[in-house]
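Model it.
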Amino acid sequence: MKLRKSEVIYARRRQTLVSAVSAISSILIAGSGFMGSGIAYLAATKTSAQVFIFDSAKRALDNAQQTFTKLGQSSLQKGFIDETRLDQAQGQLKVLSSLDKLPELDLVIEAISEDLAAKQQLFQSLDAQCPAKAIFASNTSSLPITALASVTTRADRFIGMHFFSPAHIMKLLEVIPGVDTSITTKDFAIEFGQHLGKTVITSKDAPGFITTRLGMVLLNEAAFALMEGLSTAEEIDMGMKLGYNHPMGPLALADFVGLDICLNVMQTMHDWFGDSKYRPCPLLRQMVSAGHLGKKTGRGFYQYSGVA
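Modeled.
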């Protein structure tokens, strides 16, 4: 059967994208927290590229290497990877404590905290050090991609790639082009995400995109329900788990994400949209002020044992 001209063009374009993804030889993950470490592990196990993790703090880099090892051992025990491939992936990983004299990078994925100024400062530094061909991606879950791209000289090669935690397990990837992102960059990000085994959805560039905008409103409303004494944290979560088939209740999920992150995201959406429905719950603000940030501090909407 003869293919239509449009089908031939699409097939050739797809093959070009596949070749571009396969040709990636060097990836930098900027940020060595749990998310950054997870993305690094994913990139090392799903590609043949050299994967660099950058962080200015040596302790953070040490923790990242330990996290990489733990993820590998867990995957090995569950049969998701064999020893030979895991050894190869570990050999592909290198850590960097400075942005001076960076290798010839093809792709940079930023995964630091949700702070617009901090991300912009990092991207300015990376822009000055990286080759013009390198594509920049931000793992931000809420900040406008266009605002991040604006501080670089490569807005056409800048895109949002929102991974979900844990990055090596969660199936979804949200791709967000900025105002000046080229179609080539968008298509590359989608193809790269699929190469990593992700199901990819796309969103226009608006604070919170699709998933964070919807999900955080639920978490925030659950905090309001608790603050107003509508029910207990346990019953609010049980209602959403059994009534809506959510795998985790919104308050438990907020603790897992980190209440400080939830507050920052809600404040970002409130500032950008100017709509009262995004107003952060006062209880959420109070808990963050008290240092009760969720699972990572041992106390949030719930209490957790074994956390310092």
